[in-house]
Structures are given as structure tokens and as C-alpha cells.
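ok, trying the design again with the full structure, not the truncated one.
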């Protein structure tokens, strides 16, 4: 757990992120025992990288977060209780090649599947397709844990549709969906410019999803309303309002010209040709001058959707001692998620900033 002996006072990546996670657990009403368990789970999943002192630069250039910290948190809000806490991480972050990175990631997922007794059948079916020898970038495998009360998380795996080359991402997504039985799913996706992730729910989910993410660079603000393919999903007005508030745009003739908006399409029923879930991800950090502004927008959106913003206000100081207006990127994304049979959720993705804080702009 501790780093190389030497200069005292400099934490390791593992110590730093475990501390953040324990404090976030309190914000999310998880008890101290769960908080300790999950801090350990995170540290172990990071492998040897957890022991690396933070006065050394990050050993890899992961794009999981802007400053290359291989960890990102999220709080997923609902109208009727405390938010769910999740943590996204790159288990292979300390490896030298993308191939080893994927291998290390798989090892961690298999260790989790043994520990918590879930099946990896879906992932096994995709292994040679999405984790080929000599894979292309920009990622191999990320893992997200949904930190439920009781110390056993729900697990999600993020894979790279461009693993066989960006030019083959479309056929790779098609083939992946086909292999896991979602033969008609590909037809249910909107047009975009690339597929950044394919994600699988593993473990104890009521309805495990396969999710396809689509990138929409330069999207006209008005077109955000047309991205959902989910039957009885969010209306165009709901999506446009969310994006306009999150990105701080006014008027419908503007384009979202910064980092692209992502849409995410969740499939649960193999027979269906349409997704049962839709999420709109807005990279608020590229549309705000500083986190004070990003936070204001998040609070307005939460309040507007009938959700209590208090946990978000408590979460930021549990991650950093800096003031929100003194940097930008602590709130990385704001997302609006719809899933059949559930009330809509609003999610704030929160950076660790273990290495650097991006200065405010403007
Ligand atoms: N940092 C990457 C990005 O901005 C990947 C990522 C991290 C991401 N957290 C996310 C993408 C949340 C969408 C939503 O794309």
C-alpha cells in the first residue's frame, strides 16, 4: 500500500485515490466498512501502479482523465435517495504496451469474477475481437465499479471498438453485438463519427446491458434532440435543454464545437432492434471557464430534475482543497441517462486531479 520509502508526505497514487474514495463513500452514505473495502478494491485493481509516488509523472498517458490519472469517480443521482457512487479505472495503467495493458485488465476482471462469483461469458466471447494481439489504441480495457452497500460492487468493462484500427471500428462493433446475440442492435444506432467505447455489464445486474458509445463532433445544438433511439425515451426538448444548460449554449444555431458530445445506447433484449436505454454525455469541462461555472450548471440541472444537489457540493471538497473557480476539469462530464422502467438519472463525472489541475480559461 505504501510507496517507496523516501521523502515523507508525498502520497502514492493508491493512497491518494483511496483517500478520495473513502471520503466520497461518506458523501454517498456508504458505511465506513464498505468505504474501507472499496478503497482496498481500488488499490488492488490499480496493481503496482498504486505504489507509485505522486511526485513522479504518471507512468502512462491514459486518456481516462485529462491529467492521466487512471481513476475517475462519478455520482449518479436519482430523485429518491442518495446518489450511487462509481469509480472508473484502468487496471493496466502501469504496463509498457497496450497489449500488456489489456492482459492486465483481463487478469483483474477475472480475479474479480472469482472473488464475487460472476460470469465473464460475454467478455470471453469478445476477447479475441476487442483485445487482439498488437491492438490499436487509444485504450485496451477500463473497468468501472458501482459501489453498492455491502461491499460487493457491480462491474462494468469498457473495451475499444478501434482495437483493430479506427477504420474498422464500425465492423468491429457490428461483429461484437452479433457475437453476444444482439443481432439487430447495430441498426438501432444513430450516425456519428466513431465509436469510442463498447461496454458490458458483468455480474449481478437485474438486466445486464451492452452499451455502444457514439461520438458527435461539431454537433449542432438542435440535433442533440434527435440522438436517442430508445422507444419512449427522452423527448428532443428534454435533451436539448440538458445540453444547452450543461454546455452553456444559447440559441439553436450554435454548434457543440469543443470536445464532442457522446451518446450511449444500451441494449438489454437480444431480440430487440432498438436500445432500451439512452445516455447523453456532455464534456462540460470544455464548455466552462472554471469548475465554479460547471458546478452551477450541474446544480441547476439537478434541481431542475428534482434531485438534491447537496451531495455534489460535498463531493468536490472531498476530492480537492482547491476552490472550484481555481481550475477547470474537476467536473469532467455531465450526463443524462434514461433506462426503460427507471426514472431518469443525472450523473456527474469527477476527476481525481492526482497529477495536475488545468487552470481556468478566459
Ligand atoms: N476522458 C475520456 C473522455 O473524455 C474518457 C471518459 C472518462 C469518459 N470518463 C468519461 C467518456 C465519462 C464519457 C463519459 O472521453
Amino acid at each position: 500500500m505504501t510507496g517507496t520509502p523516501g521523502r515523507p508526505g508525498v502520497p502514492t497514487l493508491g493512497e491518494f485515490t483511496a483517500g478520495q474514495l473513502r471520503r466520497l463513500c461518506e458523501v454517498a452514505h456508504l458505511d465506513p466498512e464498505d468505504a474501507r473495502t472499496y478503497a482496498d478494491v481500488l488499490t488492488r485493481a490499480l496493481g503496482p501502479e498504486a505504489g507509485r509516488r505522486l511526485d513522479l509523472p504518471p507512468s502512462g498517458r491514459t486518456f481516462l482523465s485529462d491529467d492521466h490519472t487512471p481513476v475517475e469517480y462519478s455520482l449518479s443521482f436519482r430523485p429518491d435517495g442518495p446518489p450511487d457512487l462509481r469509480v472508473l479505472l484502468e487496471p493496466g495503467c502501469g504496463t509498457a504496451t497496450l497489449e500488456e495493458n489489456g492482459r492486465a485488465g483481463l487478469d483483474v476482471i477475472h480475479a474479480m469474477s472469482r472473488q464475487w462469483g460472476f460470469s465473464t461469458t460475454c467478455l470471453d466471447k469478445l476477447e479475441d475481437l476487442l483485445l487482439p494481439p498488437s491492438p490499436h489504441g487509444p485504450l485496451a480495457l477500463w473497468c468501472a465499479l458501482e459501489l453498492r452497500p455491502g461491499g460487493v460492487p457491480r462491474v462494468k468493462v469498457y473495451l475499444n471498438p478501434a482495437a483493430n484500427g479506427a477504420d474498422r471500428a464500425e465492423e468491429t462493433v457490428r461483429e461484437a453485438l452479433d457475437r453476444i446475440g444482439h443481432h439487430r442492435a447495430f441498426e438501432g444506432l444513430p450516425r456519428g463519427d466513431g465509436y469510442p467505447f463498447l461496454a458490458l455489464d458483468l455480474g449481478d445486474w437485474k438486466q445486464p446491458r451492452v452499451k455502444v458509445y457514439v461520438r458527435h463532433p461539431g454537433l449542432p445544438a438542435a440535433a442533440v434532440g434527435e440522438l436517442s433511439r430508445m422507444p419512449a425515451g427522452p423527448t428532443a426538448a428534454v435533451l436539448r435543454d440538458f445540453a444547452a444548460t450543461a454546455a452553456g449554449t444559447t440559441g439553436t444555431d450554435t454548434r457543440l464545437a469543443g470536445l464532442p458530445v457522446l451518446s450511449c445506447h444500451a441494449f438489454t433484449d437480444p431480440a430487440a432492434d432498438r436500445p432500451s436505454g439512452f445516455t447523453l454525455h456532455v464534456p462540460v469541462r470544455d464548455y466552462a471557464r472554471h469548475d465554479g461555472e460547471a458546478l452551477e450548471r450541474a446544480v441547476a440541472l439537478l434541481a431542475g430534475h428534482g434531485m438534491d444537489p447537496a451531495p455534489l457540493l460535498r463531493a468536490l471538497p472531498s476530492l480537492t482543497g482547491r476552490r472550484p473557480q481555481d481550475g477547470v476539469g474537476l467536473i469532467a462530464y455531465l450526463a443524462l441517462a434514461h433506462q426503460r422502467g427507471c426514472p431518469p438519472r443525472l450523473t456527474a463525472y469527477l476527476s481525481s486531479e492526482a497529477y495536475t489541475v488545468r487552470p481556468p480559461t478566459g
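Keeping the full-length input from now on. Residues 302 and 309 are 6 Å apart (CA to CA).
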